[in-house]
Amino acid sequence: MRSGAKVGIVGGVFLVVAGGVGYGGYNLWNGVTGGATDVGTRSAPRTGPLTEEEVTATAGEFLAAWAAGEADRAGQLTNDPVTAGPAIAAYREGGGVSEAVITAGTPTGTTVPFTVKATVTYDGVSKPWTYRSNLGVVRGESTGRPLVRWTPTVLHPKLTAGATLRTGTAKVPAVRALDHKGVALPAEKYPSLVPVLDALRQRYGAEAGGKPGVETWIEDANGNPSSTLLVLAAGKPGELRTTIDAGVQAAAEKAVKRFPKTAVAAVEPSTGAIRAVANNPASGFNTAFQGEQAPGSTMKIVTAAMMMRYGVARPGTPVECPPDVRWEEQTFQNLERFTTRGDLTNAFAMSCNTAFIKAITPLQAKGVHNTALGDTARKWFGIGEVWSVGTQTTDGSVPESAGSETAASYIGQGRITMNALNMASVSATVKDGRFRQPYLIPRDVDGREFAEAEPLPGEVADGLRKMMRAAATASNGTALESMAGVPYPKGAKTGSAEVDGQDSNSWFTGYSGDLAAAAVVQAGGHGGEAAGPVVAEVLKAD
Asked: What DSSP element (H or E) covers 374?
């Protein structure tokens, strides 16, 4: 064994300590296999499920080589050595990792969890760094030998393909984010803001007046920093005022914890200012701003606007709501095939799918063509325009449709995609009577152009508010229970969207006073049962 490194097996857990001098992980493999050199490489390759011993030994040898800085050796123990070897070398060299203790936990099948306790050093400054990850073990396709299945997340759970670890003087200073009243927004208190603030830092940090510190970060394939993982020496953060409201944000952070996969966004209708954004899980992909999912029946707000625009129906127009309806080759039906009688307002409040399809058949609605819904979404709601929010977002999409896909689009299915921010904006547009592009950073900070749309005609705005009020307050309204404690004036719309035969995603959007919000809960079922309470909790915070 070389100086500066230790390795052992304690109670079935591998413990690897590696200093500046590497350790040959091959010795550990010999200890496990009794010195055999042909394990997994015989003329007849091994097949069948991996044994517990194979999983444990393979993980142990890989972790030993990685911790010792033997990148080539560690790479050869994976099923993609060409990619893994250089990535492991960059972890130590670019990341400044000078020492590492890796503790493997108990395997679950072929998955081995482990904890890394490392020391990162740069320019004479050192700091401890701890995190958890896991690896999987598979059989080599040609040899049958057990190997670590290579993925960048083995090195760190936030690493992606092409990204690497870097330690040094940060490229831009950190920012101290403030809400619109000047209240600080620390990441510890508002974890959902972490990916948002990381993005804002890269875009505005250089002009915010700070001084960069020494950090460890993830750098993407284009050389752009994406996530700060460790601060070795703090610089001086600059200050950046956002449109977030600390109170509404706190309510959103709490609300999304109700369900495992939830996203919510809140917008001020009178200005377009974004008052909250929260996701569960809090770190990682910002689903509230960047999701692309079918919005289900919340889309009926835009469909109802289209119907009024083309003279198909108004809030008081009687409409049919049969259990099911056929559009060309596809049959659409209501939840539990319910039926009701009454006008469009009643159909909206009860979220009758068939009413919103049957009333718009080609014979009944002349002029309502395959682009009508998208045209309406763009003309009045700004959906389809390019939004300049101040951070990365994904714009809503209502593409041209054909055949039965057209009918599906009227109830928020087909190829329509939205996220919580898009649908919060739809409710905000109804409440205020005109689209005001949501924004997180005021436009005067960088002079960017905002998307625009025409104001809703007075009759259309009044009609939509009437229907959303009915959904939230009428005895048969699908949003009644969720909105029960929300102050007036208020309105809402529920939705559920089926995705690839899985449990439906739960959607809900609504407004109260000068705040509009929308939420989506993955596999949450009906909108009023999951997403509804999330939105209501946010609206009550205003």
From this structure: helix 372-381
Residue 40: which region, alpha, beta or left (left: phi > 0; alpha: psi -120 to 50)? left
Residue 203 structure tokens: 């875009």
Gyration radius of the chain's alpha carbons: 28
- Global pTM? 0.80
Q: Indicate the angle between helix axes 458-473 and 420-432, nearest 10 degrees.
A: 120
10 Å Cβ neighbour count for 31?
15
Retrieve residue 525's tokens. Answer: 């079922």
In the chain, the amino acid numbered 384 is G
Each residue's pLDDT tens digit, 214-227: 899 898 888 888 78
Range 334-340 contact pairs with CB under 8 angstroms and sequence separation of 24 or more: 335/496, 335/526, 340/476
| Distance between CA atoms of residues 41 and 50, nearest Å | 14
C-beta separation of 317 from 371 below 8 A: no
Q: How far apart are CA 322 and CA 240, in angstroms?
A: 54
Paired sense of beta strands 164-169 and 175-178, if any: unpaired
Q: Give me the mean pLDDT over the 201-221 stretch.
A: 85
Is the separation of the CB atoms in 194 and 282 below 8 Å? yes
Contact 508, 532 (CB under 8 A): yes
Q: Which residues of 72-81 are buried (b: 16+ CB within 10 A; e: fewer)?
A: ebbbebbbeb
Q: What percent of the chain is predicted at pLDDT more than 70? A: 90
3 state DSSP class of 472: helix
| 363's tokens | 């014979």
Please write the tens of the pLDDT for every residue from 354-398: 999 888 876 556 667 889 999 999 999 999 999 999 999 999 999
DSSP per-residue letters across 308-344: HHTTS--TTSEEEE-SEEEETTEEEE-GGG--EEEEH
pLDDT for 243 beyond 80: yes
| Strand 238-241 to 175-178 pairing | parallel
Question: How many residues can be counted in the chain?
Answer: 542
DSSP single-letter state for residue 442: -
